[in-house]
Amino acid sequence: MSCGNPVADADALMQRRKKYDKTKNCVKCKVAQGNLVIRHAVYCKECFLHLVVHKFRRALEPTVNPKPDGPRKTTLKPAGNLLVGFSGGLGSSVLLDLVHRCYIALDKSTMPTDGGSHHPRHERVWTRVIVCYVEVCDAFPGMKDRTEEIAKHMQRYEGLDFVSLRIQDAFDPSWWERMGGKPFTSELGVTLADEGLFLQALSSPSSDPLASLRTYLSSLPTPTAITTSVQTLTRLLLLHTALQTGSSHLVLGTSLTSLAVSLISGVAQGAGFNIREETQEEWVPEPEVSTSSADPSENAAGAKEEKQKSRKGKRTVRVVRPLRDVGMKECAAWAWWSGVPVIGKEKWGWAGAKPGIGTLTKDFIVGLEKDYPSTVSTIVRTCGKLAPKGDVSGSCILCGRPAQRGVQEWKTRISIHSRPPTQHPTAPNGSNGSAVETSPACAADPDSLRPSLTPYLCYACHTTLTSKSARPVPSPWPAVARASTVTLPVWAEARLSSAKGDGESTEHVHGEILQTRRVGQEEMKGIVNEFLLDD
Amino acid sequence: MPPRTCALCDDARAILKRPKTGQQICKECFFYVFETEVHNTITEARLFKRGDRVAIGASGGKDSTVLAHVMKTLNERYDYGLELFLLSIDEGITGYRDDSLETVKRNQQQYDMPLKILSYDELYGWTMDAIVSQVGKKNNCTFCGVFRRQALDRGAAILNVDHIVTGHNADDIAETVLMNIMRGDIARLGRCTSICTQGEDTIKRSKPFKYAYEKEIVMYAYFKKLDYFSTECIYSPDAYRGHARAFLKDLEAARPSAIIDIIHSGEAFEIKEDIKATQKLQQTCKRCGYMSSNELCKACTLLEGLERGMAQAAVTDRARKKMDAEGPAPENLRRIPLFKLPANLQANSNVDTGVR
Amino acid sequence: MSTLAVKVEFGGGLELLFSNERSHRVTIPALVPASPSTDDDAPKKPADLTYLIHWLKDNLLKERAELFVENGTVRPGILVLVNDADWELEGEGEYQLKEGDEIVFISTLHGG
Asked: What is the largest CA-CA distance in chain A?
């Protein structure tokens, strides 16, 4: 009922301000001529470079110790190594450079000036720093393989270990075992073409991870689903790599701008429950990965450390985005003035595909940022004030994030997808006339008896797998036959197979399945009874 | 291509593709799902009690015209036991409301519902035309929005109703979620997805079309042959909202469920406890008695600004301070009549309904 | 006709649109038509950054113009430096070019 008329003069509500306040001198040192405008404030080059280091440390260091925070000058003692997620893009190039300067090269210019040379921050914080690159070129047609270029880029930096993965590793059981995952045989697949997402035996289990990847992507209903899935696969590959390399922290090069984009894009894909994880998350693997098979290349101390940790119980990986206060423009200026080459990321797309929600959001936010430079920080600040509402029902089998309870009931109520066969549209709803207590009759249909992937999914991943476009979408791999049953990523297959075999550790998963079955049977019985009465 | 059968009843010929789900369905099934989803929304949120007096905020536009029809239909079909009224606000925009008020008057006869029309002129002594001639086309939406909200409550008090239902649809709510995140309006973000809002002592307000797509509302009106006026306000609203709406339309085109997914997101988070504690408490306006988060409610501030020829006062903090600096409001200032709750609400105004 | 020589650099992946060359020396007219016109007698104005952007698009750009210009200026997300200072400090597109200026265009759109 809004009076919304989108055609309007551009300045009506949020008044555009001059691009910078008052003078062209640096707001920090007040002396030097400004070189850069950041959200209306003018900085000279030198103050700006210090500011970025300061913002980076301020975002990362309070999260380093297992029990966060305390007074600022305590020694930083992380529980494990540091894994840097590297994409070749601007943000992660700046991140890697900062990590190297601050923690490996121990570049004096990045040190806090207060506290003298014995300041605890002048010591090495991380025993080992590992960089992980996930090559996604096999997910999209015609994309350039940058693995070698990235590996060469790594030679710029000493004291780093480099791990290179490919996106199809997510479908490779041997990669899973190398990561210390419990061996499994993939037997179950999911009917992605059917909204019911039924689990059924794979007719011919694929042994080729690349083929599995492409079948999976080709079976997704929208371009949004494809790009979001590639992002999720990448995230999980990084998380499992963090676990396997004994890393307690995974840092990502998400800038303030990209964080605002992923927050809005997450909201638009129904991931409001996980808005916190978009900024920072503690990830616990599920099912519990055995940590006995430590990386052989790792030194003895590391392996010992690892054993100690596995004895302590559940391992977690803390995901931190240390550039979350540094906008994209600041990243670009830092890279330019610090001489950091940016290899760049290729555009994700394929012939005939319309932009997905992620791309639309990025274009929208970047466009808005140009005219209203404070929008991105407002978005991030606002989302920082939010907490998830409602109960958690385990973690999502695909994305590993907490899943909200009751989302399927919500979806059924809000969008009716099937019609109860016994109810006539104009018939009044029985004798119970109160609008207050009646609840809608649920559609009872035999499909609700079949095991489905649905109860294992969070709202957003369920939407990714089931929500369709108004028009048919061209597949990135038209030549790949659309399989009726599709193999899932290895972590999902592993959890499904342990849910089948091993009862104890996966109780809640079983609960989910049984719960669905029970409701279905009751409804079924009700229908049968009525049928018998009529007979 | 052979005619498709309806994906829901598997019997009749499908004649439409449902914007919300993409399913191809027949006309009867469309009416069924559309109405049943609204019914689900009403029952799940326990919006009404038997015997409630409910005013439908009627503008003559598509949303409220369809809402009046659906409320009447559901009230009869499920025997809600509600007494329904139509309540219209005349903003005083020449050529804008005249036709649509005719639609409302026709609805009054068709549906046999009592109608109350309340004008800005009658309530505030200012028509929107007069306001625009003073403040110009910038920011006039602020005036219209604040004045309309209060006018609806006052009209409801005159009709002595317990509850106002408005035609806000899913697109409106999704857009508001995005807007509030982008503008950092944390208080509104916390409540904009609530189906029903009620301050300490105001009339309940709810949005039965919260999950209904704008496109489906139009489709429903089309198939039910309900006529309404599609008039766009001649005074341009704010551009920022325009950006948000265009963005939402792009998202919907990419994936139609986006609208409902945004609303789901909005329902899946809440303001952190420690931040909630810092939020302003509601009080009553010391001038007109309406609920307010400041000493003076927004409408009184706006009106004072208009009367004193400093209309920007309620729009920006700087202008407000300037007006305050010029001394207190003169005694003879025009005022909004004192707000009084309907008698039946005064008695139980402190009862927590449990619905937020 | 007098001309201006300026140094133009591309970074952050933008160089890919300009034959993968980061650094270019370009010579442009010192006075340009005040409004788009083919008439030689049309009123002139000193060449500004907006003119340079269009000149680069028409003369140096090899592919995908939409990644460089949008609505008559650089696409949102491109940082422009004029002699090492943010162009927002120099009046953006209205900045009047001088002999020997160094103009840098850096794309920020290459993701995280």
From this structure: 94
Q: Which domain holds residue C77?
A: 3-107
Which candidate in A9, A224, A377, A385 is best for mutational testing of the B interface (most B CBs within 10 A)? A385
Is residue C51, in this structure, part of any structural domain at all?
A: yes
Find, in chain B, the residue whose alpha carbon is nearest to that of A222: B255
> Residue C9's domain is classified under what CATH number?
3.10.20.30
Domain around A511: 46-418+444-534
Assess C93–A contact: CB distance below 8 Å, yes or no. Answer: no
pLDDT band of residue B199 (cuts 50, 70, 90) is low
How many domains does chain C divide into? 1
A453 within 8 A of A190, measured Cβ to Cβ: yes
- Name the amino acid, one letter, at A529: N
Q: Which two tokens stand for residue C110?
A: 């290459």
For chain B, the structural domain boundaries read 27-279, 281-339
Residue A45, chain C, CB below 8 Å: the answer is: yes
Q: Which pair of tokens denotes residue A478?
A: 């038209």
Q: What's the CATH number for B27-279?
A: 3.40.50.620
Q: Are strands B115-119 and B83-90 parallel, antiparallel or unpaired?
A: parallel
Residues of C in contact with A367 (CB under 8 A): 76
Nearest Cα to Cα of residue B181 among B194, B198, B193: B193
Percent of chain A with pLDDT over 70: 75
Residue C112 is assigned to a structural domain of this protein:
no
Query: Which pLDDT does position A487 carry in this prediction?
Result: 92
How far apart are alpha carbons A361 and B98 in whole angstroms? 39
| A35 part of a folded domain | no
Q: Is B230 one of the annotated binding-site residues?
A: no
- Nearest-by-Cβ selection for A467 from B141, B175, B255: B255
Give the integer Cα–Cα distance in Å for B345 and B239.
39
Q: What is the pTM of this model?
A: 0.85
In a domain, A271, yes or no: yes
Residue with tokens 């429950």: A273
Chain C positions touching A344 (Cβ under 8 A) are 12-13, 16, 110
Chains B and C touch (3+ CB pairs under 8 A): no
Q: Which class for A243: exposed (0-12), middle (13-18), buried (19 or more C-beta within 10 A)?
A: buried
C30 located within any domain: yes
Contact between residue A302 and residue A126 where contact means Cβ atoms under 8 Å apart = no
Here the tokens at position B124 are 């505030």
When divided into structural domains, chain A yields a total of 1
CATH at residue A412: 3.40.50.620
B169 and A CB contact within 8 Å: yes
Residue A18, in any domain of the structure: no
pLDDT, tens only, B255-306? 999 999 999 999 999 988 888 777 767 777 888 877 777 788 888 888 888 8
User: For position B324, what pLDDT does the model report?
Assistant: 75
- Is A329's Cβ below 8 Å from some Cβ in C? yes
Please report the residues numbered 150 through 189 in chain A whose beta carbons come closer than 8 angstroms to any beta carbon of chain B: none
